[in-house]
Amino acid sequence: MTTRRLLAALLLAAAACDAGAQSFPTKLVRIVSPYPSGLTPDIAARAIADRLSKSWGQPVIVEPRPGANGFIAIGAAKKAAPDGHELLLAGQAHLAINPRLFASVPYDPEKDFVPLSLIYRTPFFIAASTAGSYKTIPELIAGAKASQKKLSYSSPYVGSPPHLGGALFAYLTGTQMVHVPYKEAAQVYISVANGDVDWALGSIGSTLPLTKAGKIRLLAIAAKSRDPDLPDIPTVAEAGGPAGYEVDTWVSLVAPQGTPPELARRISADIALALGDAGVKERFKGIGVDPVSNTPAQLADLVKRDLKAYGEIVKRTGVTAE
């Protein structure tokens, strides 16, 4: 093929991809989700789906396929046609923790999926029972040191951000604590309130019902700075805990590998517009998170950074997928 013919072929291919992006979508769009119905990521995804349905003129539905550490939903989305009509709701645990925690996972987060955009990112707080013995971070650390392997923390499942964050807290404080995983996220904080476990990491949205009820107390935020909406809650470092202790969680939308870059950018831009909608912001506020969007390139960089960061945490703490 001559140089002129090759250039013409490339221009035609580019034009076809651009036309495909402009005409998208042509049918129902499905968002496959590894999260059960009713959890914060599910509610957030449905809010976005409703808004995208209006702007795209096609139905957008969320299809929960929970179980197996997200492998069921991820496996289904991985096999989908790369035309934008089937997307995957994927969180930090799926794209950055599982590949570093498990000896083998049935997907490559960087090679099997095309990043689209974050939908939210939120910090965690250290939560303890208001009726328990630990009212401050120093008291919690002292309790752990006084009773090695007896003080406990809970999380939604092995390999979740709260699990790795709890293991990191124990490592940084030179203590040993018992991890108690639960199958249902709500049970994590009920167990803290009831005194079945001593503490847990949780987002505002996850802990809000029990903090409002006066059953659990937020001792500190695991972030660089205080939350502007909760200025009275100190950072872990300010409260007397280890410096630099930061734990958050994020949820994103990705597409199957092979999705054209022009289409990925189009969908990413539409997600950003949806997240800026007043109605979507209000629904996010109701679950205690703020909408956050970014570009495909920025999401790819975030995944890469967190893969490295959680690889180091797994190595330092010795956490395993039991």
Question: Which descriptors apply to this entry?
Answer:
322 residues; alpha/beta; D-Maltodextrin-Binding Protein, domain 2; 2 domains; five-stranded mixed β-sheet; 18% strand
Question: What does the secondary structure layout of this molecule look like, with pairings?
Answer:
Elements (H helix, E strand, L loop, with lengths): L2 H21 L5 E5 L6 H17 L3 E5 L6 H8 L7 E6 H10 L11 E11 L1 E5 L7 H10 L5 E4 L5 H12 L5 E4 L3 H10 L4 E4 L1 H9 L3 E6 L26 E9 L4 H15 L2 H9 L9 H22 L5
Parallel strand pairs: 1-2, 1-3, 6-7, 6-8
Antiparallel strand pairs: 3-10, 4-10, 5-8, 5-9
Please, could you describe this protein's structure?
With 322 residues, this protein is α/β, with parallel strands linked by helices. The protein is 44% helix and 18% strand.
